[in-house]
Automatic annotation (TrEMBL):
Organism whose genome encodes this protein: Thermoanaerobacter uzonensis DSM 18761
Pfam families tied to this protein: LacI, Peripla_BP_3
Keywords for this protein: DNA-binding, Transcription, Transcription regulation
Identification of the protein by name: Transcriptional regulator, LacI family
Ranges for domain HTH lacI-type: 3-57
Keyword Cytoplasm: no
Entry GO MF terms: DNA-binding transcription factor activity; transcription cis-regulatory region binding
Keyword check for Transcription regulation: yes
SUPFAM superfamilies: lambda repressor-like DNA-binding domains, Periplasmic binding protein-like I
């Protein structure tokens, strides 16, 4: 037999309306009464309906996560599961559920966000990427709906965000190769529609400029964030030039870059040195093990969730953005010239 609110009310010796107010955490109900009602619910095995509870309290205790790609594409790159792991740790600790939305294009993304916000399905949203032409950020800002972006927005006014110093990280990778005697250094990134790709391209260019090395457009390529994308980009570069080193802004892409170099008859690292980004677990087991920039992906997830929940709980937030440090992890994919 299902336990009802009336059963709980009878056990706690209160009115059914009082039970509803306790479930909604109404501040007018005394602590003593709340404890008595929750004890009655526990004794009877009564579990409040989550939907009814959210309607009463106007709080869902749910965070929305917006993926920039389809499910198949997103989970093929270890970055997204790792950043979600960080988010889920904080959500679990703070007793929030997660609602994940994936999409094939920006139109589907915006539709998903509108449904979440207008349907009152979530209390706040975490965007897992930042585009140069992003319709979601200005829409959420205009709606005054709580959200956090993983990735520095092009227009950061009024936006809370978490990211690395991607310009500095790319300079770190490029300078590492320059210090190893390389001057013909190629650069391969994901699409330039993402702010992270633009920032890392800027960091690469700055490192070259500061070391008196001219930027060569023929040594820079972009493609999708995948192994095949890295392979295609490297093949296009090798048709024009033969770099001695490559900065690749994603480890999965770097695996494709290594494969392309080998298919063209080059050895890694003897002929071409490679530095990747993200320090995914597989990078340590690549052949050769990949030197890479560790961007602390897990911490990006942790900090984004903490920042959003702090806003939802109306805690004092000292800053509108958080920069997560990076470090270079040296392995076997680079040699000195």
């Amino acid at each position: 037999m299902n336990v009802t609110i009336k059963d709980v009310a009878k056990r706690a010796n209160v009115a059914p309306s009082t039970v509803s107010r306790v479930i909604a955490d109404n501040p007018r109900i005394s602590k003593e009464t709340k404890e008595r009602v929750w004890k009655a619910m526990e004794e009877l095995g009564y579990y409040p309906n989550a939907i009814a509870r959210s309607l009463a309290s106007k709080v869902t205790n749910t965070l929305g996560l917006i993926m920039p790609r389809s499910t198949e594409e997103a989970f093929s790159n270890p970055f997204f599961p790792e950043v979600m792991r960080g988010i889920s740790v904080v959500a679990h600790r703070e007793k929030y559920d997660l609602l994940l939305s994936t999409s094939g294009n920006q139109e589907e993304e915006k539709e998903a966000v509108i449904n979440m916000v207008k349907g009152k399905r979530v209390d706040g949203i975490i965007l897992l990427s930042s585009r140069t032409t992003d319709e979601l950020i200005p829409w959420l800002r205009d709606e005054k709906f709580p959200f956090v972006v993983i990735g520095k927005p092009l227009d950061a006014k009024g936006v809370y965000w978490v990211d690395n110093d991607n310009i500095g990280a790319s300079k770190l990778a490029t300078n590492y190769l320059i210090k190893h005697g390389h001057r013909e250094i190629a650069f391969i990134s994901g699409s330039l529609e993402y702010v992270v790709s633009l920032d890392r391209l800027d960091g690469y260019k700055l490192a070259l400029e500061e070391n008196g090395i001219p930027f060569k457009r023929e040594l820079a390529e972009q493609d999708e964030f995948s192994e095949d994308g890295g392979y295609r980009a490297m093949m296009r570069i090798l048709e024009r030039e033969k770099p001695t080193a490559v900065v690749v802004t994603d480890d999965v892409m770097a695996f494709g870059v290594i494969r392309a170099a080998i298919d063209k008859g080059y050895r890694v690292p003897e002929d071409i040195s490679i530095v990747g980004f993200n320090n995914i677990p597989l990078s340590a087991f690549a052949n050769p093990p990949l030197t890479t920039i560790d961007i602390s992906t897990f911490d990006l997830g942790i900090k984004s969730a903490e920042l959003l929940i702090a806003r939802l709980k109306q805690k004092d937030v000292d800053t509108d953005h958080i920069i997560v440090p990076v470090k270079l992890v040296e392995r076997k994919s680079c040699v000195a010239r």
